[in-house]
Description:
The protein is an alpha+beta fold. The chain contains four helices and five strands, in the order E-H-E-H-E-E-E-H-H.
Amino acid sequence: MHLHALAIKLREPDAEKVVEGFDKAPRIVLLESREGYSSTSGIMDFARELGRPRGDLYEVAVWKDSIRVSNGWLYLFMAIHQEAIVVPENVDCIRAMLGTVDSKTSIEMTNRSLALIK
Length: 118
């Protein structure tokens, strides 16, 4: 996995709204250090426990307890499983190129077939 530390300048920074947005967004999972996710290896263990092939984590994992706002900047840490993260988007891209279904339906189909968390 890759660990990303983000610093994002926002017009109207609000950590609570960021958490709400991530919580509603498909393919983003919020995890907390106190739940045992203190490193990317802990997140990979989580993916293995889901029973996924090769321990793939198709979602972006964001440490909820890392989300902070200060002086107009949003700070957070996220983990990306670089080999797995591209799979859902590639499946959806192929469907889009073929024009078989609309984007919302494709995302729902892909999420269901890969057993994404949300």
